[in-house]
Fold these 4 entries.
Entry 1:
Amino acid sequence: MQDVIILGATGSVGRQTRDVIAAHPDRFRAVGLAARRDVGGMQELIRELHPSWVYMADPGPAAELREDIPAGVDVGADAEFLAERIGEASAGTAVVAAMAGFAGLVPTLAAVRRGLRVCLANKETLVAAGALVCETARRHGASLVPVDSEHSALMQAIGTERAHVAHLWITCSGGPFRGFAASALDGVTAEQALRHPTWRMGQKITVDSATLMNKGLEVLEAAWLFEMPLERIGVVVHPESIVHSMVEMEDGAVMAELSETDMRIAIQLALTWPERLPSPARRIDWAERRAWHFEPPDEAVFPALRLCREAGMAGGTAPTVLNAANEEAVARFLGGDIRFSDIWRLTETVLERMPAQSGTTLPEIMEADGWARREAARWRPVTVGGPSC
Ligand code: MG
């Protein structure tokens, strides 16, 4: 029996983790659930999964939850409660790290310090603090297993042949604006950006998929997970999202993982890797006539890949700053405050203003993150003919 803690339990990956646990009740047991504020979603999960503790990051929802909670379920709302519960988890517990954004870093680090299996769905954690997380994982014997579909595909395609890998190819749906001209992107709405062609996900990652920032963050994530230099990681647009990524071996053979777009495959595999279990996920219908397409990304229209690569090459806290600026930019775009293409402009400007910083301790990362968020909040778009900030 595998104990499981879900961080970000009421989000998209969290709910699909619930499905995986429910499909294998003899194999998995949810012991702890953490979310920010979705009381209704959490109550539903508590009824189904019977955890022994629950954490809500916002105190209001935690108080509301305490009013109507089954006996024996411990509810906490401060960060120490969460760190303590993770710190006292039994050896062998798997932590599904599926909180959105930089907020996932501290609880993920707690799981890494405890030497647990960390099923990583939160790529921002590795982008913002890759050196710290990987070094801490090595020191404490924690394993970082990807949940992100592309990285799960890379892990499977690499198998036991890590020494023979020449190049990683990360596939990308291209998002809802594939084929758009740069001039058309200023006018696109949040509603359009939130309409992803192949995956149903949370808002932040869906906007990141539309800007291709998600793919750039995935390149940085892959560099840490597979210890691969950035120049050996490429991106290929594949609109059908069936081939989830590819590994080119030194002899030219290319290994790929293919499946329908169903995150439950990657979530379950992260919990059991290198073992596999049956899954209710949809199957590819090979009787259906179809074509799959591959093309290079248009980096002139979508500058996010370049921004991520540059931040990755600069190293230190540059990726931390990139991540924080992008998170703030996405929030401002969703709030109707800036235009779609301003997400890149804002992120690039904040990166350019960034003071050089090579340290990657937790306080240095926190400081760089906070600085970038303040810069991102005061950024103003340049209006043609008008004053700029
Ligand atoms: Mg992905």
Entry 2:
Amino acid sequence: MSILDTKLEGVKTVLILGHVHPDGDCIGSCMGLFNYLEEVYPDREVTLCLEDPPEKFGYLKGFTCVQTEFVKETSFDLCICLDCSNTERLGGGEEGFALAKDSLCIDHHVTNAGYAKTNVIDPDASSTSEVLFGLLEESRITREMAECLYTGIIHDTGVFKYSCTTPKTMLVAAKLMETGIDFSRIIDESFYRKTYVQNQILGRALLESITFLDGACVFSVVRLKDMRFYGVTSKDLDGIVEQLRLTDGVECAIFLYETEAQRYKVSLRSKHKLDVAKIAAFFGGGGHVRAAGCTMSGSIYDVVNNLSLHIEKQLKEVEGA
Ligand code: AMP
Ligand code: MN
Ligand code: MN
């Protein structure tokens, strides 16, 4: 019996929440848990609310059951938050979380201070999907649940290549494969596939990228007017920062996109040395050592300059050490 089973004792209604702008791990873990509860705890009434999940995850079982309108003024017996490092990132789900009688947070963000009544946070895990796997009874995991968790793992590990990938990650993935999932299709369709306009905006962002700090940093920005021109939304910008990070000689990649006038969503990635979670946390965000994010205001010049000061300082510290 895991902590999940203990928390579900005597519970009638469950609310599952993820973070704003949900990514593959958020959606995979939320859907994996949703399908598990439907199967293993059929008498619990489960509601899953997520902000506008991308259509590319439509192959996951139960995708059409996701509510995009957040529940208000309802007190659930238990609220389970997945892949979300603080309550602000619950977005429209914050009210449901606050009103719930009990709460459980399952996560892997190093910046998560443990905001729920019970917290299962493993910063060494590749993904929340991997943490969740440890809380489920293995023999009850169906192929459909495995598809969800596998999707989460490949998205947060960049298909098993980021440094967060561990031997344990591979063992979990192996167990998920044993259920008979079509892993090649999942990887192609949810991770690598791009629409024509997604490729165009990626190309544009790479073309306009600028290196600084002697090539140790690279940055690019997509403005609202660019998004309008190409007919894309923020959901079409996934993967741009990863491509920037691959640039030869680069230790840190910065990608910004404009959310409103003078306001930017910032994505930070590093290769070997920088702790970008620390930098993102300084600006009110969070994440992981090699992948983190925050939201910043001001001109593009101000945002990059402010980040650059922290990057340069940290680089000097690690290089001088
Ligand atoms: P992103 O650059 O948005 O792909 O995010 C990289 C990592 O940092 C992910 O694990 C996010 O969950 C986390 N992250 C991004 N933005 C924030 C934020 N504002 N606050 C806390 N964590 C964040
Ligand atoms: Mn996430
Ligand atoms: Mn995650």
Entry 3:
Amino acid sequence: MNVLVTGGAGYIGSHTCVELLQSNHNVVVVDNLCNSKREALSRVEKITGRRLAFVQADIRDRNALDAVFSRHPTDAVLHFAGLKAVGESVAQPSRYFENNVLGTKNLIEAMGDHHVKKLVFSSSALVYGSEYAPPLTEDLLPNPGNPYAENKAEIESMLQDLSGADAEWRIRILRYFNPVGAHPSGLIGEDPQGKPNNIMPNITQAAVGRLSFVEVFGNDYPTHDGTGIRDYIHITDLAKGHLSALQRLSKGANVLICNLGTGRGFSVLELISTFEKAASRRIPYQFGPRRPGDVPVLFASCTRAEKALVWRAEKSLFDMCKDSWHWQNMNPGGY
Ligand code: NAD
Ligand code: UD1
């Protein structure tokens, strides 16, 4: 298949490009590099021994998208491009709406005009909000608690409306839980700009001495060790979930929402102690207050993805830690 990957230079996009190229798909990446580096794509080519096409462009730029679709025959789009920092979305809601929601609107309009009607979209477990008890199933009504999650919920309903209006569209909406890890080669991985928000890059940066310690947000949650529990999923398992979605896009419902997680939760302290074993080093940490908006426990129901995508996450928490460490150790300053 000829696949257009928006946001393909980013963390999840670059790992998915590896899987696409290794499965003999042709890849065109559209990315404005606002949160990524061109080098990630050179590394993708190095891992796979294959070339991809790269267009530096913004998904809000309709002329640029028209030029891409005119020049590159496209069968399907994997849409990763977006801004993803929850705190930033609270501070800059209109920037997030403009980039994420209007950017996606622009993309699907361009796709429709060029008769490209197959789409896999990156959504988030954050659309569930904090009210539901896990395991979270896809039929729960979205209850987003911040502008970033609202963007994802708005895009999901825009895509469902689009499918209702035009039955030619085939759409998969994938709600990711907590992607961590890196490609086992250590050549690509997560490279956040500035102080990381998420837990794993905080741990890896503490491991290489870029941070003096990890602040653990809260030790008074109603969990077995008092720290928050999340459903961590290895990035290559997540990437493979996209390939399964792509392969089965023509089967089943026109539009389908699927969780991508492991169905199992681990606490922050379990994550740190597993990382210590995988990296054979101590991770300094200190307890701090709860982070506003965090929920105690979040993990997925994976039944739908197993049935509809014939996909299941395979890698363990130890694999996730080992590969995150390998990437950071080989690239202490990132790309
Ligand atoms: P990332 O920031 O590493 O990658 C996103 C890419 O999109 C970047 O390369 C960035 O330069 C590009 N981009 C952003 N706005 C753009 C625009 N207007 N035009 C063109 N390119 C643009 O993030 P990621 O972790 O790889 O996330 C990919 C997608 O998955 C995002 O939509 C994110 O919201 C979603 N998601 C991520 C997580 C996570 O924990 N990483 C969880 C759930 C959902
Ligand atoms: C994250 C992302 C969200 C994404 C979602 C997917 C943020 C703020 N949230 O949420 O965009 O869609 O995954 O499910 O980027 N923790 C610490 N110390 C830290 C960082 C985190 O103790 O320095 C704890 C948190 O309290 C939480 C766990 O680690 O219990 C995971 O946090 P994080 O990696 O930020 O993921 P989520 O909050 O689940």
Entry 4:
Amino acid sequence: MKFKSDFLWGAATAAYQVEGAAHADGRGDSVWDVFCEKKGAVLDGSSGENACMQYEHVEEDVALMAQMGLKAYRFSLSWSRILPEGTGEVNQKGIDYYNHLIDCLKAHNIEPFVTLYHWDLPQALQEKGGWLNPDSVQWFGEYTKIVAEAFSDRVKYFITFNEPQCFIGLGYYGTVHAPGLNCSPREAFLAAHHVLMAHGLAVKTLRKYGKQELLIGYAPTGRFTYPKTNSKEDIQAAKDMMFHEIAITEWEWSMTWWSDPVFFGKYPEDALEQYKGIVPDFPEEDMELICQPLDFVGQNIYDGRMVEMGKDGKPVFSPEPLGFAHTHMKSPVTPEILYWMPQFLYERYGKPVVVTENGISNGDLVSLDGKVHDGCRIAYLERYLQKLGEAAELVPVMGYFHWSFMDNFEWACGYQERFGLVYVDYPTQKRIMKDSGYWYADVIRTNGECIGNSDEYSDRCMIIC
Ligand code: GCO
């Protein structure tokens, strides 16, 4: 058996992408509510105002998860639903909503995997400077304490931050995501540092106020690489590129800038050297706070780039062959990344690995038979999961979360990209389990044994990537 018998087969979503009910029951605005109002900010002019209305479809959605046989559901909490002003008064209706979701999941034996922060800072806190304000660390601590007290009797798994690379890289440093600040490099380093401190404080707070022994992780992303061949040189080249070169050239997208401090208590030396004079001088106590023991290495992994050892002993990217497969969103399809990344992560950080996100956007459409024959997603998943299975034979891999459980609001791309195992017809809020959802149910039921034997599905699948 490739996957352990208690392997966590899951699927993921995020609050702003699925909940809707953006102005219901006392929820305060988040930075995304405000950002979506800016003309041109979101491709189709949409927002998460209604999204999938999971707020009103909890039972139906959890029933679909149960039908799929999900062992775990990863979702995030909307901070401004719980604390409309970010700090201070708690909105009981927000707590009630998550209690209901958690209870429904538990009733179906689905493990809730709670992400504290998936990009939706309360707008009230953004107006005080957001992550640029050093107080943001304490704001996050206060929010985490409320979460621990309210939910940790039933929730065992927590993730602090989702992809800080994106909300700092695209939202602070850049303008593509909320709040779209376009700040200076020094400010971006500062905001990033506060986020890392908030992560550390959240871990401490969860451990202190948790009502049971909790399993805590973090879900960053990064620019990933894999070796062109199995040679020692190419493997080394892939690691050099990912762990060193990328942190030097693109710190905000690198893995090591965001994960080394969390696991080692220090920023990567070579990158620090590169950005000398721009990175503020951070005191040692900050680094100690950031570095709290974690129970697993969570990582969102979609794709990577192939690397080989150059003639001068320096790593180089290998060119993509013509016609290389890409998703609807134009991301490369590189299944090898789920073979190599768990090994690289385990080797560097020494903790069991959880793939906290992986999946494909596809141009899904409903066939005349009323079904969604998303053969392309099955082909993608089959290849990726086969590679994950090979990795799981070599290093500890605890779980896999498909992004996404259902189609949803894809940030600045609006509703144009469909990532779900469940199709959502937004005007009617009707859900249709896609072929990939039925296929994933088989994967879960057989604990991965059916991967590689999907003829039954490929026969009836139309490929519309
Ligand atoms: C991310 C986020 C998700 C996205 C998904 C597809 O990884 O960017 O966690 O919210 O929707 O990744 O782009």
